[in-house]
Write a structure and sequence with these properties.
heterodimer, A: 295 residues, mainly alpha, two-stranded antiparallel ribbon, globular, B: Rossmann fold, 6-stranded mixed beta sheet, 4-stranded antiparallel beta sheet, 9 helices, 26% strand, binds adenosine-5'-triphosphate, binds magnesium ion
């Protein structure tokens, strides 16, 4: 019954799962980019490097301090988030009065520096990180085998994405954030410390990237280029979803992961480029992105 | 520590206020006083510098010099957020209702900075329309309702000096009347108000005093009682 066009169901569901996993990372990363872009108006090119730092901090916690996966899932985003806030205060904040392009160039430079430092220290061969014992093994669902850790990645990403969406759309802090995105001067004139809000927002967006990095550590090997490879696709996802749209980046992230997976089943040769082809079409038809408001 | 306001000294004293937008020098020495509980207007033709004066007092103008003393404390050099926390609030000319926030969220956005602000019930008593529209998107309200929302949200904060920039601009006469009654009520409750107005029939019904702004300066002061006598002069200033 599952014989679709001669594709065995194992292959189909296997690729769909892989698509969901990739989509989990696309969604977390593009969500962080969207949050940052909304308030800071900069495209955070350091995002991939900070994702990589998340994975490395988890690895260091384990290998230098013996701190395992579960605490690292909190501690690594916290550490990288604080690192991000320091960067924002010391460097990015000085560029807000200039064209967006300067923020982009600065964060691009930062990404190269961070990646270079890690490459010098740890090489490029990649460091292993074990799946936590609680999530080893998997379930036989009959039509496919579902590794527990991969299921966890999808669930964790969904939870964090929708938690973030809820925080931004439904809470008072989120209302402040949305208001400051629209008119920071007026929000300041109500007595709110907008620069601090911006710093915290950057820290939060960066922490999301680091969280994705920790999730990725047991799946992909921890290596200095892991962010650079992924972030190119994530930027395409952001362009397709529409810069700055919260829900758009979540839906587009998961959706494009699935599209990529399906392409791998039906037309494997196209899987590496399908997202970029969609990006080109979206740019031609709806330049603000699927969920973006026209500027 | 700045000296406390002496009895009889104005709540707001603006002296030789200069202000710039980038390189463009717009305020050239604005001076005026507002006593506690007074309503004063800034009148002047388009581009005279009325809005800029309010922005400079509120700390929303990046570059300003001179002196703005509020309750005995110098505000020049303070960021807008610190000025807001001292009890000054603004209704900007463009109203500043947030499109990505509901009416409820718009209303509750400004934090309470001092005790003594209006409760939600008092606000709904003043602006009954807002209660029915709480779940709407802020910018889905009519112009009049948006203006009411812009006033309502700063009444919650406990600010005692209100800067209102053309609250009647573009509104239907019944709404203008409602806003007029609101300002009267606020005056009765002891609020101090600086009102920018083009509609000086409206201004005359509320204000204690009028300051005429022209080319970035206050060029004349007219007590409301003398308004009739000064009509000719005023028409000349305003170019009407
Ligand atoms: N953002 C800005 N950048 C540069 N110049 C500005 C800006 N806003 C206002 N100006 C200029 O500053 C001067 C004073 O403007 P302001 O808005 O204070 O006038 P106004 O008295 O409020 O006028 P209106 O009655 O039209 O509201 C005008 O010449 C105006 O062109
Ligand atoms: Mg004006």
């Amino acid at each position: 019954m599952f014989e679709l066009l001669g594709i065995p169901p194992q292959a189909l569901f296997g690729q769909l799962l892989l698509g969901l996993i990739n989509g989990s990372f696309y969604a977390l990363l593009s969500l962080g980019l969207a949050v940052i872009f909304g308030l800071l108006n900069i495209i955070n090119f350091a995002h991939g490097a900070l994702y990589m730092m998340g994975a490395f901090v988890a690895w260091m916690l384990l290998n230098y301090l013996g701190i395992g996966y579960w605490p690292a899932l909190i501690l690594a985003p916290l550490a990288v988030g604080i690192f991000g806030m320091v960067i924002e205060r010391l460097m990015i904040a000085r560029l807000y009065h200039l064209d967006h392009l300067y923020g982009l160039l600065l964060t691009f430079g930062l990404a190269l520096i961070i990646q270079g430092l890690f490459r010098n220290e740890y090489g490029i061969s990649g460091l292993p990180y074990q799946i936590p014992t609680q999530l080893a093994g998997g379930q036989n669902l009959g039509f496919m085998f579902l590794p527990n850790y991969r299921a966890w990645v999808v669930v964790a990403s969904l939870l964090v994405c929708f938690g973030t969406w809820f925080m931004i759309e439904k809470t008072r802090l989120g209302a402040l954030l949305r208001a400051a995105t629209e008119n920071p001067a007026l929000v300041g004139a109500f007595g709110i410390n907008v620069p601090r809000l911006i710093t915290l927002t950057y820290g939060f967006g960066v922490a999301l990237a680091a969280f994705a990095g920790v999730l990725a550590a047991p799946i992909y090997s921890v290596n200095p280029n892991m962010g650079a490879d992924l972030i190119i696709v994530v930027f395409a996802v952001v362009v397709i979803g529409g810069m700055g749209s919260i829900l758009g980046s979540i839906v587009t992230g998961f959706g494009l992961g699935l599209v990529e997976g399906l392409t791998r089943v039906f037309y494997p040769e196209g899987s590496a480029v399908v997202i970029f082809v969609i990006m080109a079409i979206v740019l031609l038809v709806k330049p603000a992105g699927l969920f973006g408001r026209a500027a | 520590m700045p000296e406390a306001a002496r009895p009889g000294s104005p709540l707001l004293a603006v002296r030789d206020l200069n202000g710039w937008y980038g390189e463009s020098h717009v305020l050239h020495g604005v001076s005026f006083d507002v006593a506690e509980g007074e309503v004063v207007t800034l009148l002047g033709r388009n581009g005279a510098g009325k809005t800029t004066t309010l922005l400079a007092v509120m700390g929303m103008l990046a570059r300003r010099t001179g002196s703005v003393i509020f309750a005995g404390k110098e505000l020049i050099g303070l960021p807008a957020r610190a000025i807001a926390r001292m009890g000054i609030a603004i209704v900007p000319e463009e109203r500043g209702i947030f499109a990505s926030l509901s009416v409820e969220e718009n209303l509750m956005l400004p934090p309470v900075v001092r005790p003594g602000g209006f409760s939600r019930e008092q606000i709904f008593e003043l602006f009954p329309n807002l209660r029915e529209r709480l779940a709407s998107q802020g910018t889905k309200l009519s112009g009049g309702e948006q203006q009411m929302l812009a006033i309502a949200r700063i009444l919650r904060t406990g600010a005692r000096l209100l800067l209102l920039d053309e609250p009647t601009e573009g509104l239907a006469p019944v709404i203008v009347q409602q806003i007029g009654r609101t300002i009267e009520r606020l005056k009765g409750e002891g609020f101090t108000i600086v009102l920018v107005e083009q509609n000086f029939r409206f201004a005359a019904s509320l204000a204690d005093r009028h300051y005429v702004v022209d080319q970035g300066r206050v060029v004349d002061t007219i007590p409301n009682a003398d308004l009739e006598r000064n009509m000719g002069k005023l028409h000349a200033y305003l170019g009407v």
